[in-house]
Amino acid sequence: MNKKKNKIYRQPLPNRFVHWGVAISIIMLIITGIGQMPVYGRYLIVQPFGTKWLTSYEITLWVHYFFAATLLFFTTYHIVYHVVTHISHLGRAEQKDFLFSFLE
Amino acid sequence: MSEKISRRTFLKRSTVASATAGILLATKTPGYAQTDKSDESMLIGSLIDLTKCDGCAAYDTPLCVTACRQKNEHRFPQPQKPIKDYWPRKKHEDWSNEKDRTDRLTPYNWTYVEKVQVNWNGETKEVAIPRRCMHCLDAPCQKLCPFGVIEKTKHGAVKIDENFCMGGAKCRTVCPWDIPQRQAGVGLYMKLAPELAGGGVMYKCDMCADLLEEGKSPACETTCPKGAIEFGPYEQIRKKAYERAKEIGGFIYGDVENSGTLTLYVSDVPFDKINEAIETKKQEENDTRFGRPHMKPEVENMLETTHGYMLATLIAPIAGAAAAGITAYKVLSGQKKKEGGDAHEQEEK
Question: What ipTM was predicted for this assembly?
Fold first, then answer.
């Protein structure tokens, strides 16, 4: 047995997928969202390597929209996945009750 | 409120509330402050006929420029001195010592006439081009102002609110022609944290929005002795521009540029030649400051490329739901096979 097989994950793959997807999307949305303000061009006196793109309103806008799409993807994935698996764990009567609760 | 709210009622109401908010946002219902008030049937366009304009050769300053300055003088910036630098940068933009300049766009001069020599068809021609804001149909400055202080009037005039502008100059950066010009030492930022944030106020032509509101013509049109500037209902102006171009075998600038603007130039000299002449003149004069816009044909609108990304945000939730459905199905069917096995364990195998 190699080391990798001994590793125990606390969370199943779909959860880890959603967790990191949402985390990266939100961080990038914050960074590029700030980039839509006239901030980086003025205050970044020393331009750290690889951050020049942050001073372009055009590029930060594209990246912002990109991560808006990924955040929407991961959040709907999260909701749909858990609703579907949750319903399937219920008994027949409970499933009926759950669905009818929306109609009451 | 004495009514008891059960968990179920609460969930239901919050679902309805967020769905309603979503629909309101998606359908652009004006439930919130809107800065784009343009009405397609009321748009005012302008036709600038370069075959008629001679840059007022008989006058020291072109009459449209003088009229514009007189009309807007009361709105010109009066900065508090000494003007501080834009911390942490060691610079600021100050035009208050060059108030009399009429040879470029400045916070004190919202229109000017660029005069160039253009070689075309074996002859050298003097071309005078009145320049100012083009008033774009899909204006990046108005859509992207971080403070939401650029308005589009019902006539389509793009107007900066000088009382609330912070002077970040994003409008100038996203404008293909770098039209709005900045003056430091004035505006809202002086009342907030002038040493740390803000840069002044941006100034540019507002198509004499107040005169249009009264049904009058903009100052530049009324004073032009040659009838080279004409304002009118956009569709009529556009038709007229194409007719005039056909008549003289000429060219149009402003109809496709930046996805279309309300300003249409007509010339018997191609605009790439005019652009070349402007660029050469600026290079010769070693002029690198803002305020002398180019005339590159078919210049692109930076918002155009983002439309595809907006579509992606509409598809993303559908893709997310589909992917979740497939994963849930796989996990659940694996679970059934194992009978009572844990979904999490299944996932790891």
Answer: 0.79
